[in-house]
Amino acid sequence: MPRLTISLSARTHRALREASARQGRPMGAIIEESLELRGIQPMDSAREIVARARSSAELSAEEAMAVAVTETRLHREGR
Prior knowledge:
Elements: H1 10-23, H2 27-37, H3 43-57, H4 61-76
Helix pairs in contact: 3-4
């Protein structure tokens, strides 16, 4: 698994440590889950989602992309 070094404010680092202890999970797992919830995924994953949506809904490429963009925005906004 690749490693990454990041800088966090003292406040954020403390909150992350506390969440890690409370949940009994590694800080890295919490960070990874947070990134996924924000929609941070490889472009291939996004393309796969669009392809599945397009084939199941019988949409054109443009229509499928519009739906994917709208759904991604709503997801990121927590709706």
